[in-house]
Amino acid sequence: MQLQDILYSQGFGIRRVCSGLVQQGWVQVYEDGAAEPVQVTDSTQEYEPEGLRFRVQGVDWEYHEKGYALLYKPAGTECSQKPSAHPSIYTLLPAPLRQRPNKGAVQGLQAVGRLDQDTTGFLLLSDDGQFIHRMSSPKKHVPKVYRVTTKHPVTQTMVDKLLAGVVLDDDPKPVKAAACEIVEECVLDLTLTEGKYHQVKRMLAAVSNRVEGLHRWKIGSLALPEDMKPGEWRWLSAQDLEKLR
């Protein structure tokens, strides 16, 4: 694949812009596993894209045919391209992730499901439609673990009710927690395999408690890395994707 096409596929702009980046000396390529990148000025030079590493305007990148990333969502952000009251989570991503071309769909990586504006933690992003569907579909039963801080102490009776199923105001069918564990007096870990609107808050309200803080820290068997800080993002590795499955 030509270098300008590789850059285009990775979200660095239209082909004319990508060609200009190369010709103006802003692109370097790590060739044959070299420790340092080599300057390239021919935008039509061809490379095997899989596993290719390159540097654009001083920042190192690696080729990804499909993008899979995680974001540590901070509080006070909205999972929307057109936020209403708070900054969008997409403003936390570098331009190439927001601009990756996608045929017949919105450009860039998209959030897999949504977290409320005041909810923090593990948010998946991808431009792979099948992956997004698989991870967000209630029929796939992908477990998501939430650390819930409550207003009132959590009792075993509350836990038993959450596991047995509670009725929410818009559906007569009880909604069950896949798992529920008391962590501290006013903290519990709640595992869900579906994602209804404000589900955690409504489930806690159904057992006469109230959510004061909500943090998603695990999806599938992949936990949010302990060294990540709110607002940070990183690519998912093949091992990470396996844990999500």
UniProtKB/TrEMBL annotation:
Organism encoding this protein: Comamonas jiangduensis
Top-level taxonomy: Bacteria, Pseudomonadati, Pseudomonadota, Betaproteobacteria, Burkholderiales
UniProt keyword annotation of Isomerase present: yes
Keyword presence, Isomerase: yes
EC numbers for this chain: 5.4.99.-
Superkingdom per UniProt: Bacteria
GO molecular function, one term: 16S rRNA pseudouridine(516) synthase activity
Residue ranges of domain Pseudouridine synthase RsuA/RluA-like in the record: 68-206
Function: Responsible for synthesis of pseudouridine from uracil-516 in 16S ribosomal RNA.
Catalytic activity: uridine(516) in 16S rRNA = pseudouridine(516) in 16S rRNA
Protein name listed in UniProt: Pseudouridine synthase
